[in-house]
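Sorry to interrupt, but I need a hand with the structure work. Can you supply me with one protein entry, sequence and fold together? No commentary is needed, just the two lines. Leave the record below and I will have a look.
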Amino acid sequence: MGRMLSAGQVDAYARQGYVSPVEAFSPRQARVYRDLLESAEQAGGGLSADRRRKMHLYLKWADEIVRHPRVLDAVQDLIGPDILVFHLTCWIKEPCTGAFVSWHQDSTYFGLEPAQHVTAWVALSPSNEESGCVQVVPGSHARGQQRHSAGGDAANMLNTGQRIDVPDDACIDLMQLEPGQFSLHHTHLFHNSMPNRSADRRIGLGISYIPTHCRCDSRQRLSASLVRGVDRHGNFDLDPAPVADFDPQGLRCHEAAMRRWHAARAELIPKANAAA
């Protein structure tokens, strides 16, 4: 048995590529974090696409979530004790809208080796079939990296429109979460999410955790946040934690990290498409 996950859950992750649900914090605490997010949206006049990425670099409460002991204990059970946050995206689907996420693998444009990246999807509002929760194809991670097509539907929340074909008769599981719960999935797992047909926003943080020995094969050197253990490899420049929401140093750190991120993506996306 691990620090957080049972032996059965660790085995299920190895066989099926995901574990869900896992308890992080109470629904009341999830409401506190949601209120802080929505206050940040109001303070910033609405958060831009870039401001919804790597939010833990300029929002103290988001940094608190990525370092939450229960989340890190579960991640440690899967990838070991030396852990970096490589990326974070805040996924918000407004109520009764058509926004969706196409079938894809997280690994497609990340350029990470070895493929030990695990995504923790932390729910701040109900994530269920009606609100468009994450769906997965159990065991699909065992197929390794797959060819993706790109482009298409403006409602797709993936900027590149990346997608893989999943047969209509494929076995699909729903990773339904209550506020304060999270799921974990492997970087090669096939997953998507459908439109939010509920009357509430569907809000979650997709946090990309990697062991410190992982590296990114882009020429552009990237930064990451050391959230547990020791970094003995130096494959990334380490970002500082923010001292307060929207503090100037945190905002500068975030802007610099996003410049690097976009430069790396400009290299990694064509490379991944060419390899396919």
About this structure: The chain has a mean pLDDT of 95. Helices lie at 7-16, 27-43, 60-66, 69-79, 248-275. The two ends are 39 Å apart (CA to CA). The first strand starts at residue 18 and ends at 23.
